[in-house]
Amino acid sequence: MVTIARMDEFDEIIDVRSGSEFLQDHLPGAGNHPVLDDEERARVGTLYKQVSPFDARKLGAVLVARNIARHIESSFADRPRDWHPLVYCWRGGQRSGAMAHVLRDIGWRVATLESGYQSYRRGVLAQLEILPGRFTFQVLCGATGSGKSRFLEALAAHGAQVLDLEQIARHRGSVLGSWPGEAQPSQKWFESQVWNTLRKFDPAHPVWIESESRKIGSIQVPTALLGSMRASSCLRVEPPIDERVRFLVGEYAHMLTEPAVLKDRLSQLAALQSREVMARWTALIDARAWEVLVRDLLENHYDPLYRRSMAKSYPSIDFSPVLRPRRLDPGSIAAHALELLDGKQPAALPANA
Prior knowledge:
The chain is α/β, with parallel strands linked by helices. It is 50% helix and 10% strand. The protein has helices spanning 19-24, 38-50, 53-76, 94-106, 116-130, 148-157, 165-169, 187-198, 223-230, 241-251, 253-256, 259-266, 275-286, 290-313, 330-342; strands at 12-15, 31-32, 85-88, 111-112, 137-141, 161-163, 207-210, 215-216, 219-220, 233-237, 322-323. The strands form three sheets. A five-stranded parallel beta sheet has the order 6-7-5-10-11, sandwiched between helices. Strands 2-1-3-4 form a four-stranded parallel beta sheet, covered by helices on one side. Helix 3 crosses helix 4 (94-106).
């Protein structure tokens, strides 16, 4: 048996848990090859409780043997003689043991994960308490529509170390922030991806990240990471409001094609806004006055909320350097990103310069 510290040593990682277990979270890069699927696990469990453990084990053995044979034929038949996989299940017990036994008998060098997924999960949580403190974060701050996520993409494309929490969370962090056609991942999966990204970074170089609230949609940002972010230096991104409006109309085009959905999402702000404001937003949606609506939302909701949040989370933000891009088109963002990495951008100027 091996620990997660050695997981990168293997040619392939095989998760033999059921599909629903795998969907909740799994080792990065693992493939799902269940020895019992969800329905089969339920059948075996019911038989165990209602008939006897002996009958349940007989049925389980038949199903496991059948599934392992199928996986070998359909997924592993072309693996070379020196193939070296890591196999794991929930706690390193019978399911991973059964798969590993058969694969070893074939002649492959198979290892199992000590204590299975449970030990992996404990390791991830422990590392998320430690890893953020090893890095210097460069936090991009900016109001809604400043293009922060696009700047992170451009920085990553130029080779910078980037931790894009909204990309991992599949959410932009506001009531309008859900990704079209995508549900958010589980909290466990989010934490696995954050850990897997951080562990590959070099502490000698900064990690670029976007300022975030404690929650991104339904996802909670790990406490130690949030603390490290808020203790780090900021770079304020402040494009003109007209450019922010233009940018947001393009970024949220999918939302503008569904006015009823947009109204429903904005109704969640009713507790924070007057009836008059809510009625005005509804009328602007009905009139398809998108640029007027976006400017109104920025000036009367998102910008004041941002200022309050940043004053609380980043007390020194008013003294942070400022980047003032005139345009937020891909070419301009890419050019600014390259200048930041080359040290040519006047980002060190004080905010009131």
